[in-house]
Amino acid sequence: MEIQDTYLTIAKASPEILFKEKNSKFFGYAFPIDSEEEVKPLIDQLKKQHFSARHWCYAYQTGTIKTHYRANDDGEPNNSAGMPIYGQIQSFGVTNTLIVVVRYFGGVKLGVGGLISAYKTAAQMALEEAEIIEKTIDVHFLVRFDYKNMNKVMRVIKEKNIAIISQKMEENCLIEIATRAKNAKMVFETFEGLFEIEIEYKE
């Protein structure tokens, strides 16, 4: 079975989009994020920018093998904003992505159906403006060895085209390497088969 070791995300923050519905304005934004901690500062920034708006609704998903998501209606009727936004993250198949839709109320109520449709459209437009890229899911290892075995280790790294993340070269050397998930077992076994060289998965 082929291991799924790529995922889709967005390259950078998308340009602002504007969707209008019965005088209400919906500004949509998509941001790449690596963790939940990045969400609040981005929303705070939009609250400063749009201080007179009524709602700052959002949804995000993080993670690759295991994913985690959250949807927030920010005062709109239950499931009329956050979930339609999250639906677009799912529909585009992206992760490590935050979408925020800022609403200015235009005096005319849209009803739940109208809200669902407007938030969905604004989220879709934001993702259509974003550059979607494919990234690989990498597995990190720590390789420990004595300096005298350096050439042996470097030869494998070069032959297997393995990325070096960090290295400490002293009498006892430690190198952190990364490889695509589908090559991880092969890389691990190659190093494990070498004399006087230790390899472990990095948590």
Which blocks of ≥5 consecutive residues have pLDDT under 50? none
Task: Give the strand line-up of the largest sheet.
Answer: 2-3-6-4-5
SS element count, helices: 5
- What is the name of the CATH superfamily of the largest domain? Impact, N-terminal domain
- SSE arrangement, N to C: EEEHEEHEHEEHEEHE
Which CATH top level class of the largest domain fits? Alpha Beta
Task: Give the terminus-to-terminus CA distance.
Answer: 24 Å
CATH topology of the largest domain: Ribosomal Protein S5, domain 2
User: How does the major sheet shape up?
Assistant: 5 strands, antiparallel
Shape, principal axes of CA atoms = elongated
Look at the structure and give the mean pLDDT. Answer: 95
For the record, the CATH architecture of the largest domain stands as 2-Layer Sandwich
Instruction: Give the domain tally.
Output: 2
Estimate the helix proportion, in percent: 25-40%
Structural class: alpha+beta
Strand portion, in percent?
A: 35-45%
Domain Impact N-terminal: 22-127
Family: Belongs to the IMPACT family.
Protein name: YigZ family protein
Organism: Flavobacterium humi
